[in-house]
Design goal:
6 strands, alpha+beta
Length: about 180
């Protein structure tokens, strides 16, 4: 994957397949400490110990449509290549947490990429799931919680084109305001 946003999409889609009702996505850009942190956690079914041990094997996947599971190993390698770290935690019945940290200015760090597009894809493609996104960049913070959006739109579906248009604009303005590199 050429950008970190695609890793976020892959992990969030895994959470949805694991019957998550809410997926939390946190991105922190700490320029002072030269650190980028991405955390995705969910309230899905989680993994048993055996599955958790195998999750980092690129030739293991629980998906039925392909025989390899490169997403987590590739993200771990991308983080470690920049001097960062990768942690995968999961408990059966209690969800999963993936945390990747990177050296923010490392030459080999992948760009954040199109986070706006990833968030819209997740929201539009999974209208029954809530997404809570928080992005911290320096002193600025941008948050989007689809539970709040649902509270404002009453009976209009969250995947309605006008609602998605509003969400797109809201994300783009929020990310611009905190001066992140993400789109």
């Amino acid at each position: 994957m050429v950008e970190l946003a695609l890793h976020i999409l892959d992990i969030a889609e895994n959470a949805v397949r694991a019957n998550a009702k809410t997926v939390f996505i946190d991105v922190t850009e700490d320029r002072k400490d030269d650190r980028l942190s991405i955390e995705i956690r969910d309230d899905g079914t989680g993994m048993d110990g055996r599955t958790l041990q195998k999750a980092m094997d690129p030739f293991f996947t629980s998906k039925k449509v392909r025989r390899v599971g490169l997403g987590l190993p590739m993200l771990a390698e991308a983080a470690q290549r920049t001097g960062g770290s990768f942690v995968l935690e999961s408990q059966e019945g209690a969800g999963t947490r993936v945390t990747a940290t990177f050296s923010l200015r490392h030459i080999d760090r992948q760009p954040l990429g199109d986070l706006t597009g990833v968030l819209l894809t997740l929201i539009a493609g999974n209208p029954g799931v809530d997404f809570v996104y928080r992005h911290v960049c320096g002193e600025g913070t941008f948050s989007l919680d689809t539970r709040d959006v649902r509270g404002e739109i009453d009976d209009i579906p969250i995947d309605h084109p006008e609602v998605l248009k509003f969400i797109r604009q809201h994300i783009m303005e929020g990310l611009h305001h905190i001066e992140t590199e993400a789109k």
